[in-house]
Specification:
Blueprint: H1 2-5, E1 15-17, E2 33-34, E3 42-48, E4 53-58, E5 62-66, E6 72-76, E7 81-87, E8 93-99, E9 105-111, E10 116-123, E11 127-132, E12 138-143, E13 149-153, E14 172-175, E15 181-186, E16 190-195, E17 200-208, E18 214-219, E19 224-229, E20 232-237, E21 243-248, E22 253-254, E23 263-268, E24 273-279, E25 282-289, E26 295-300, E27 304-309, E28 314-318, E29 325-326, E30 339-345, E31 348-353, E32 356-361, E33 368-372, E34 378-381, E35 385-389, E36 397-401, E37 410-413, E38 419-425, E39 428-433, E40 437-442, E41 448-453, E42 457-463, E43 467-472, E44 482-486, E45 492-494, E46 501-507, E47 512-520, E48 523-532, E49 537-545, E50 553-556, E51 559-562, E52 568-573, E53 582-588, E54 592-598, E55 601-606, E56 611-615, E57 621-627, E58 633-635, E59 641-643
Parallel strand pairs: 25-29
Antiparallel strand pairs: 1-59, 2-6, 3-4, 4-5, 5-6, 7-8, 8-9, 9-10, 11-12, 12-13, 14-15, 15-16, 16-17, 18-19, 19-20, 20-21, 22-23, 23-24, 24-25, 26-27, 27-28, 30-31, 31-32, 32-33, 34-35, 35-36, 36-37, 38-39, 39-40, 40-41, 42-43, 43-44, 44-45, 46-47, 47-48, 48-49, 50-51, 51-52, 52-53, 54-55, ...
């Protein structure tokens, strides 16, 4: 990318080093040490007592391990929201609960030393609690089902049937130190103890207590239990279920670890975030801090406290023997501007940031402001228009002309359901709304031409201007993973694709490419396939055993770019000669957000908002780049600079 590779003179404005150690930012197993915050709300913080590690998880799918020098080891563990995190008591492993809050509920275990995904467990219902047994033998996952608690061997994820009876929904599960017994909390207001050697509920081991407690936690070596409900913190005897004391609170965030003899929590009084310890019948103030955004997660460590905010920042305060108000600055400092999406049109690269729509071409060597961004997250372009939309929302679609200067964007369409897929196919826009409707919009006059409804839709692609192919689940009618609708006649034809589901569709104008999932008595298989409409047949280009979680298939200049399989983006010739498939080194599939070809380079945008560039002919990596706060690009393989106003 010429515009990225060209060296520029340092700005005369005040500059500062970002102290940025993302030397191999796009490499799946590389260290990513920086002060960069999460890009969205911090959802959970966990503390590993044996080595002092603090892990923060965010709705951006990022997990960060914070070191004592206030720099974090960043890793993009998911393209979904991470809701919960648990740390293995003995090994350098973590478990995360990732979800879209609609239909995907998955727990994944990572080896943090090598940044390897060990295994994933896909659940049918939302996860209500996530924890390891005391010695790390089992991973325990609670779900909102009658079965409730599930046990898996922590080493390999194999299911272990321990309990004779189902627990029903539980929001806390914890074993004794020897793993011989288990206690669970049910939102119905029950503390129940089980003998893990027999799998039976213990005699007289069920205690009625307060129902619908939030943040249920055991502490004081499992002798005390606490939770929050109806504006009060309830401190409860874990051996009787009896409430021993209550404390009024607004929006408390529990920070307590197992060894604490008193419940520790943080609460906001309108001015300060104060850390309390419930001792005797009072809440003793330990210390306080101010924060520029709402704090929503926290944990107590051996030396102090870590808190996460709704803006993605991390705050840390050292423990003090006396009550003090600590510094208000977060330890996180943004080191670059996040690129939300990219696309190309007429040899111009367009980039969307939180504030602006930027453009860069091969001649002016600089990123310029094209328009402001009123809150969109995604881009798509024809030769004459550039479209702004926000995936997974019902926000209206708007566009700018690339031929005539506009001060404001033009309204195009208001989706009836959240946008799952937005594609430009010739002079048509193909829009998948929710999982039940495909809308065809004329990109010339911006009118809705057709709308087709159904159930279980995953993706859609339009060929030859008339053939609408929809990838779907066989669980819905018609019982086919892919159907073709003639948009002129409305005729629907089931395609002869032997699979349970088809998704991630793309085309080169002649053939259709995508991914399919097949489940038989002998096992599960995921495949990248090519479907030839002229012959109504297909062939698998690449297959692997098991479920493969993929998000993208793109065909550009006769090559298929996909995150199918393993940890890296892969290029496959559309001819299907799979022996020639090429990995794009340094492009983590977990990070993949979009791909575009600009000049003679392939640009891979990852979820951290950075770009990795590759030669299109050789696929040699030529650099990873961040967008500075001055809207200029900097290579992260050298000193990164920007300026502060």
């Amino acid at each position: 990318m010429k515009s990225l590779n060209k060296q520029r003179k340092t700005s005369a404005k005040v500059i500062f080093s970002l102290i940025f150690v993302f030397f191999a930012l796009g490499t799946a197993n590389a260290q990513r040490i920086s002060t960069q915050p999460h890009f969205s709300q911090v959802s959970a913080i966990a503390y590993k007592e044996d080595n002092g590690s603090v892990f923060s998880a965010g709705e951006d799918g990022m997990v960060i391990n914070w070191a004592n020098n206030y720099e974090g080891d960043h890793y993009q563990c998911s393209d979904l929201i991470i809701r919960k995190i648990a740390v293995h008591p003995n090994r350098n492993e973590i478990a995360i609960y990732e979800t879209d809050d609609v239909s995907t509920y998955r727990v994944t275990v990572w080896d943090w030393t090598y940044k390897n995904k060990k295994y994933s467990k896909t659940l049918k219902d939302s996860v209500t609690c996530l924890s390891y047994s005391a010695q790390g033998t089992y991973l325990m996952i609670g779900t909102a089902t009658l079965k409730g608690l599930n046990f898996f061997y922590a080493d390999n994820g194999y299911t272990k049937n321990i309990l004779n009876d189902s627990t029903g929904p539980v929001t806390m599960a914890k074993t004794s130190r020897t793993e011989s017994s288990l206690v669970v909390y049910s939102p119905s207001g029950q503390l129940v103890y089980y003998d893990l050697k027999t799998g039976k509920e213990k005699p007289n081991g069920r205690f009625a207590t307060v129902a619908n407690l939030e943040q249920p936690v055991l502490y004081n070596n499992n002798m005390n239990f606490a939770g929050f409900a109806d504006g009060k913190i309830h401190v409860i005897s874990a051996t009787s279920g009896k409430t021993e004391k209550t404390q009024n609170a607004r929006t408390p965030v529990f920070c307590t670890v197992n060894s604490d003899s008193n419940l520790c929590y943080m609460d906001y009084d309108g001015a300060l975030y104060t850390v309390y310890s419930i001792e005797d019948d009072t809440a003793k103030k330990l210390q306080a801090l101010t924060a520029s955004s709402k704090l929503c997660a926290g944990v107590k460590t051996a030396t102090g406290f870590y808190f996460g905010s709704e803006q993605g920042d991390i705050y840390q305060i050292d423990r003090s023997d006396e009550y003090i108000v600590s510094r208000s600055d977060p330890i996180t400092v943004p080191t670059y501007k996040q690129i939300l999406d990219i696309c190309t049109a007429n040899d111009v690269l367009y980039m969307l940031t939180e504030d602006y729509l930027l453009k860069a071409d091969q001649t002016n060597q600089i990123a310029e402001v094209f328009a402001s961004n009123p809150g969109y997250t995604n881009l798509a372009a024809t030769d004459t228009e550039i479209y702004l939309y926000s995936a997974n929302t019902r926000n209206p679609i708007t566009c700018y002309s690339l031929l005539v200067e506009q001060e404001e964007s033009t309204f195009v369409y208001l989706p009836s359901s959240s946008i799952q897929s937005f594609k430009i196919c010739g002079d048509k826009i193909v829009l998948l709304e929710g999982n039940s409707a495909v809308t065809i919009i004329n990109s010339v006059n911006r009118t809705v031409e057709k709308r087709f409804t159904g159930t279980g839709y995953f993706d859609a692609e339009l060929l030859n201007g008339t053939e609408l192919y929809i990838g779907k689940s066989t669980a819905t009618n018609p019982k086919s993973p892919m159907i073709m609708i003639d948009i002129t006649t409305g005729e629907t034809v089931s395609m002869n694709l032997r699979a349970n589901a088809a998704y991630c569709l793309a085309s080169d104008g002649v053939n259709l490419y995508g991914q399919m999932y097949t489940e038989t008595k002998t096992g599960k298989t995921s495949s990248l396939f090519c479907f030839r409409p002229a012959n109504r047949d297909y062939k698998a280009l690449w297959s692997e055993n098991g479920e493969n979680i993929s998000t993208m298939t793109k065909v550009i200049n006769g090559k298929i770019y996909t995150d199918f399989s393993q940890d890296q983006v892969t290029v496959v010739p559309s001819s299907g000669i799979t022996s020639y498939k090429t990995r794009l080194n340094g492009s983590s599939a977990q990070n993949l957000k979009n791909i575009a070809v600009f000049g003679d380079e392939v640009l891979v945008l990852n979820s951290r908002g950075t770009i990795s560039a590759y030669k299109e002919t050789t696929f040699r990596n030529v650099g990873t780049y961040v967008l500075g706060f001055d809207n200029e690009f900097y290579s992260v393989t050298s000193s990164v600079t920007s300026y502060a106003q």
